[in-house]
Amino acid sequence: MKDTYQINHMRLNGENKHYWANQLKEFADFFVGKLWGSSHPRTITEVQFGKQDIRGGFSIALIDQKHCIPRQKHFQSKDALLGFVEGWNMSDNSNINNFY
């Protein structure tokens, strides 16, 4: 079975690393297998977290069945990214198209 998420160039460390890994998995599981987009819906197959661009910022990238990135959200720091993930998981949001 393929993993639903991948961490790129970002380290989870300290006593809470397992908590954050579970938060990332819960976030990814919410998106994987669902359609994203309205005009040409794409099935999300994976979510990638971490430093994924040359600007050095952190991001969350949704990956579709063609291995393209239909949506990527940028953050200034790892803490901001993890805070967003934790907030999303705690919210009552059931529409993945609200991921802006």
Q: How would you characterize the overall build of this protein?
A:
The protein has 2 helices and 5 strands, in the order βαββββα. 28% of the residues lie in helices and 28% in strands. The chain has one domain (5-91). The longest helix is centred in the N-terminal third of the chain and has 15 residues, at 17-31. Strands 1, 2, 3, 4 and 5 form a 5-stranded mixed sheet that branches. It is α+β, with helices and mostly antiparallel strands and 100 residues long. The model has no long low-confidence stretch (mean pLDDT 87). The N and C termini lie far apart (28 Å).
User: What is the overall shape?
Assistant: globular
Summed over residues and divided by their number, the pLDDT gives a mean of 87
Question: How many individual β-strands?
Answer: 5
DSSP helical segment count: 2
Low-confidence stretches: none
Task: Describe this structure in a few short sentences.
By secondary structure, the chain is an alpha+beta fold. Helix content is 28%, strand content 28%. Strands 1, 2, 3, 4 and 5 form a five-stranded mixed beta sheet that branches.
Task: Spell out the key features of this protein.
alpha+beta; 5 strands; 28% strand
